[in-house]
Amino acid sequence: MVDEPTDEDLVRQAQQGNREAFLALYDRYLHRVFNRVKSRVPVQDAEDVTQEVFIALVRSLGSFAHRSRFSTWLYTIVNRQIADFYRKRARTGAARSVPLEAADPAPQGAGEAHERIDERVQIQQALQRLPEHYQEVILMRFADGLTFEEIAEQRQQSFEAAKSLYRRALEAIRDQIGARV
Amino acid sequence: MNDDTRLDDALARHADALLEGREVAGDTGQPDLEAIARQLHDVIAPHQPPDPAFRARLEQRLTLEWTLARRVQSRPWYRWRAAQFLAVAAALVLVLAVVLFALPDGGSGAVQGTAAGPLGWGRSCSLS
Q1: Boundary-marking domain end, from A65, A94, A123
Q2: Which of B44, B55, B62 lies at the smallest CB-CB distance from A143?
Q3: Residue B12 near residue A146 (C-beta atoms within 8 A)
Q4: Is there a domain that residue B111 lies in?
Q5: Which residue among A38, B42, B49, B58 sits deepest, i.e. has the most Cβ atoms within 10 Å of its Cβ?
């Protein structure tokens, strides 16, 4: 059985000019990056922001010094591009709230559906206001599909600590929603 | 095992079940936290992969970006020019600094002494 190359192996090869290695990284992360972006920007902008993330990755790959995990570094780029997206929107006067109706179209006039949309907008805004480490554990579990064991490994903490972080993140969202009701 | 640890485990199992598409309710004893987890799952969880047309467009664009990025990196003259420019700038700053420090009184042109010899501080003050 041939071992799959690690992210770090692929990055090193890509830094030496191997385009196939870069494309392998792109394949490995496109879905996760897209999910993360989609959960934090309006769905109609998710493709543009995802594209900006990967362009930024190509341009700055040479500067990655392997001092952190590649995924950590990549998610820093994701966060920066999402922040840029909202900065540009603020400059053009567009609202910061995320129109989830676009993500999940509901039949017009259906009261229950609108209520559900309100709840989802509320939960997404609460997520965006969470401290970084709370957002991270939720996105790792739901957007990246990592198990709690994998989250613990990535965050270099114990399995128990990863689960506890997740519980505290949920409680923080509950407190936020409760505080606003 | 304390209550928090028990709740940590139950919520972790709940998240696993959500992601596996299993119906879960009431296991944690915290229906409000379960509801939040369900909503997060609905908002975030990967329902569908990126559109294949988008994927193809993005790959094309990245191939172009890759070529451009490699071209810039593989131009040694480009780096050499930048290094030359920096060296000349640094040399100019150095020469300027040496000239300024070499001039008496930092180049202000003040008289330091007379034909009779250098003036002491007290004498120079009394003369002025």
Answers
A1: A94
A2: B44
A3: no
A4: no
A5: A38
Task: Classify residue B109: in a domain, yes or no.
Answer: no
* Shared domain check, A90 and A31: yes
By Cβ distance, the residue of A30, A142, A171 closest to B44 is A142
| Residue among B39, B61, B71, B78 with most chain A CBs within 10 A, to mutate | B39
Is A23 in contact with A43 (CB distance < 8 Å)? no
CA B9 centroid distance within chain: 38
| Block mean pLDDT (10 aa), chain A, length 181 | 84 93 94 88 90 96 90 92 90 57 49 68 86 92 91 92 97 85 48
pLDDT tens for B1-30 read 678 899 999 999 999 999 888 877 777 888
How many domains does chain B contain in total?
Answer: 2
Query: How far does CA B16 lie from the centroid of its chain?
Result: 36
Query: Within this chain, do residues B38 and B58 fall inside the same structural domain, yes or no?
Result: no
Domain that holds residue A129: 109-181
Question: Which of the 8 DSSP states describes residue A147?
Answer: -
Q: Does residue A101 sit within a domain?
A: no
Q: Which residue has the tokens 């095992």?
A: B1
